[in-house]
């Protein structure tokens, strides 16, 4: 995680490692619905298509993609659910 978000409270974690498109985004959609407004979700995935799909998901639905990283073949994302 970057230094920018070291003190950020993570409200939920979605482990989508080992899953292939479209499963990570389907699970992401379900998990985001369960988060409170402004809540932060950490997503772990191994499917390279999440690099394209998760940012588009956030943009389309109005959520904030706080961070996107690749470490040791695992993609990490921090997403803040929109406030409304």
Automatic annotation (TrEMBL):
Entry-linked InterPro entries: Sulphur_carrier_TusA, TusA-like, TusA-like_sf
One family name in Pfam for this protein: TusA
GO molecular function: sulfur carrier activity
Domain called UPF0033: residue spans: 14-38
Gene3D superfamilies: TusA-like domain (3.30.110.40)
Name of encoding gene: tusA
Protein name: Sulfur carrier protein TusA
Cellular component GO terms, alphabetical: cytoplasm
Family the UniProt entry places it in: Belongs to the sulfur carrier protein TusA family.
Localization: Cytoplasm
Protein keywords: Cytoplasm
BP GO terms, sorted: tRNA wobble position uridine thiolation
Coiled coil: none
Main localisation: cytoplasm
Catalytic site positions: 21 (cysteine persulfide intermediate)
Record's function text: Sulfur carrier protein which probably makes part of a sulfur-relay system.
